[in-house]
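Exercise 7. Predict the structure of Haloacid dehalogenase from Secundilactobacillus pentosiphilus.
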Amino acid sequence: MLAQFTPTWMINATYDINPQQLKQLGVKVVLTDLDNTLIAWNNPYGTEELREWMTALERENIQLVVVSNNSHRRVKKAVAPLQLPFISRALKPFSGGIRRAMRQYHVTKSEVVMVGDQLLTDVAAANFSGIRSILVRPIIESDAWNTRINRFFERFVMSAMRKKHPELKFRKDLINERNK
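Solution. The predicted structure, encoded as tokens:
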């Protein structure tokens, strides 16, 4: 049961994910959750650090695509200042949103990675889709009301997962990590 919630990598922050390392790993498309992964759920404008990371991805010819459970209207409004493509109503942890993005960008499972801050939605959706995942720490400590329920259960899953996989720790980069 824990396998469906176990990420490929655990990185401190989304912006710590090195685009050059992604390229070395064959990644052509980065799928990312929106709230508390790419932007703070209560700050739709993002940060300068985000823009620098997006530019670095672009330099490596890696497409960034938001895959969110939020409504089309909410995601469109949030990503408009960033001019990012998106898949809304992804229904994570189910794999439909990820599969839609893979079809749209014509990539194989080995050419895509899912980045998210939640085990029960983002990581599970990646695992159900057969792709690699990167669990990141949430940008801010507070969550929208609907995410707080997931966080409650996630604490138990994370505790059990760390007992089974003590090598899984939040780190600064992907290389020299589990499952290269």
